[in-house]
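Tutorial handout. Part one gives the primary structure; part two gives the three-dimensional structure as tokens.
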Amino acid sequence: MSDSVRIADPGPLGLAGFGITTCILSLINAGVTSAEALGVVLGLALCYGGGAQLLAGMWEFRKGNTFGATAFTSYGAFWLAFYFIIKANPGAGMGVFLLFFGILTFYLWFGTFYLNKALFFVFLTLWVAFLLLALHGFGVMGSQAGGWIGFICGLLALYTSAATVLNATAGREVLPLGKPLRQAGA
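Part two.
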């Protein structure tokens, strides 16, 4: 493929895969949906949250987008790992798993300062959700607070996906994404 061939923005696909999978797992963590729905999450973790995000990450590499490549590939791998970890009944190790993805999310959150406010809020709520769910994994608290913050994060990811698709399709701003907090190079 020559360098002049353009590819579509893989970001909305990655955000949708992340958002839907996160929303459904978060509803279980919040206690809204029965834990028996975990089978749905595992299917999504393998195919949409994992597979589609991993593909989006690879396409972000092709576009030269370091942030998108790192984020989508990492969270795609998170969902794939989650599938296998849950199948193995992890016990106490889940807290460590979530804590380190929280650390990743924390530094990626700083990268969103140069992107748009929608992504800023996706990563802020994801970081808080990981922190709260890691505390749950360590037995410090229940999963409800992390579930609700995760659900908000998933909805924000879906909004950001929708805004990006609609804005690109319409050729104008239909749904706002918000200006970056900081200008690149500043």
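Part three, for discussion. The radius of gyration is 16 Å. The longest helix spans residues 144-170.
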